[in-house]
Amino acid sequence: MSAVSSVKAPLSTRFGNRLRGVSRLSPTATAGVIIILLFGVLALFSDLFMTHDPISSYPERILQSPSAEHWFGTDGNGMDIFSRVIYGAKFGFGIAIPAVIISVLIGVPVGLIAGYRGGLLDEVLMRIFDGLRVFPSIILALAVVAATGQSLLNVVLVLGFLDSPVFARLVRAEVLALRSSIFVESAVAAGNPTWRILFLHLLPNSIQGAMAQTAVRAAWAVRISATLAFLGVGIQAPTPEWGAMIRQGAEFMVTGQWWVAIFPGIALIFLVFGLNLFGDGIQDILDPRRRVSK
Amino acid sequence: MSLLSVSDLQTHFIFHDIDNQLREARALNKVNLTLDAGQILGIVGETGAGKSLTAQSICGLLRPPARIVGGSVLFDGQELLSLPEDELNAIRGADIAMVVQNPRSSLDPLTRIGEQLVRIHQTHSGGPLDISRQKAMEMMQAVGIPDPEGRFTAWPHELSGGMAQRVLIAMALMNEPKLLIADEPTTGLDVTVQAQILDLLKELVARFDMASMIITHDLGIVAHYCDQVAVMFAGEIIEQGTVRDVFLKPAHPYTQQLLAATPERLDLGSENQLGGQPPDLFNLPPGCLSQDRCPRATDICRTDPPMVQVAGGHTARCHFAKPASKSASKSAKPRRSKQNG
């Protein structure tokens, strides 16, 4: 360890460690990162890539097959599918990222408190979360969104809430092992109030597994939000959301206009695939047993 | 008035067993001890005698199913057992500091050494960060950590066991405690480091005018480093006094057996070994708890033994202990120098 005198100095080293961690990613995980970055660029700078306005229709060009003018063809409203697929990346990230953040913000503190306190509180919190997991998430999401009103915000909130048990369980399991560890007992003996023990000592030591799950859970959120849109719940038709576009395209599949559903479908598959590859890659790094020697 | 005075402290483990039957293990049975400022008290006893549990009970570190069912712990004139958690937190780590065994696992693995030292000072004393940082450096120097500047940013896993124990001691000293409880501070350290750590502890107790309680299995450590000694058996302090009194004139048969069994005196044979088992804590016998293992036990041992004042400040809980008499003054005269350690 180098002789650095300031307490602040570690930050740069910490960041260095993170970078070294990323460089350990397997080739498949790297592919995942590239896919995610690609979609991220598309979402952030969609204006640069779109050839047409994603929601203005050209009534004279309904259901045209892919051409030089409309690369992915046009849909039943005469809208440019290429531009709509690119714009749809905004919805993919715009739903997945806030949903995962909400899941973490709900799940992690609940897991910390339930695991540390144990007893009745633990039982009650975990049984509530088990109750959430009992229902197939898609049906529960359908019901809740249908009941609370069809808006993008509601979809995000519902997905975030429905997925929070995953993070609570992961953190709780770690805390159960840590709470009787000597350093936590020492922290109690040193006169730390409970909140300090939870957030200064237990949180950093138990968050790893939960963080590794974020990418996989983001993939889940992308998938479920698209499914909801496909079923006509949440985001509605003219909005360039992939699930809604696939739903619209499904009608034309039988009549031979395959391009309407196929292109948003491919985009969806790739984003989910990329997130899953990346998520697996992180888990491989964190779990030495899954690490393959090169 | 003593700095710490524990009287009739009773800690039981109360829980429902697998058949849903209420069970109660009487782990601490009326522990009595006193400790004055500037003194080092050694607590000895076999595994399961309740040494660590006594320390944990004093600091309010018990977790269910362990529960304090009676007694009092007076620290600096304050009753600790009835203090609410937040007031107890203000004392723990500040006025009462603890050093435990397994120093490396006592440190948060994801926080640098310096940060941990600074934090404990901030928690209790507050004030500007610079002051805490400076204090941390001073304490690291005081406990003999070479290159404290460099160690400040070290991770716990980068330290050796001895170094980590020094860090823990530095942490314990950050808020200038009045009482330092060291629970087997040298278990798991090699003998050279053990001696260094204990020498350091003794020196620091004198320098900062603290009181200290050292929990150990090792009679040699007690003989060498402590002023007072308390012998525990089955959750009871059966004898307490100055090291000289207790080691030279042990009044309780169990203490006598214990001292006779020290390895230095064991000439290959096993007659001196302490036989038997501690009593079943779920089902303690009436009267003296050591009756089953005591060579002198008679019918009278089925009744509660009295706390006998063997000499000034030397007490033993036994029917056969001789109360202080004219001959008691003899005990002040040293017959032999320390035989252990």
Throw out a few tags for this protein.
A: 294 residues, mainly alpha, MetI-like fold, 12 helices, disordered N terminus, B: 341 residues, Rossmann fold, 2 domains, 8-stranded mixed beta sheet
Written description of the protein model:
The complex is a heterodimer of chains A (294) and B (341). Chain A is mainly alpha-helical and 294 residues long. Chain A has one domain (26-57, 67-290): MetI-like (MetI-like fold). Chain A has twelve helices and no strands. The longest helix of chain A is centred in the middle third of the chain and has 37 residues, at 81-117. Chain A is elongated, with a radius of gyration of 23 Å. With 341 residues, chain B is of the alpha/beta class. Chain B has two domains: 4-95 and 177-332, Rossmann fold; 105-176, no CATH class. Chain B contains ten helices and twelve strands. Chain B has helices at residues 51-59, 85-91, 113-124, 129-142, 148-151, 161-173, 191-207, 219-225, 243-248, 253-260; strands spanning 4-16, 22-35, 40-44, 66-75, 78-79, 96-99, 179-183, 211-216, 228-233, 236-242, 307-311, 314-317. In chain B, the strands form two sheets. Chain B has an eight-stranded mixed sheet with strand order 6-7-8-3-9-10-12-11, sandwiched between helices. In chain B, helix 4 packs across helix 6 (161-173) and helix 6 packs parallel to helix 7. The model of chain B is unreliable at 326-341 (pLDDT under 50).
What is the second-level CATH architecture of the largest domain in chain B?
A: 3-Layer(aba) Sandwich
Q: How widely separated are the two ends of chain A? A: 28 Å
Major sheet strand order of chain B? 6-7-8-3-9-10-12-11
Beginning-to-end CA distance, first to last residue of chain B: 31 Å
Helix count of chain B equals: 10
CATH class of the largest domain in chain B: Alpha Beta
Secondary structure: helix percent of chain A: over 70%
Structural class of chain A: mainly alpha
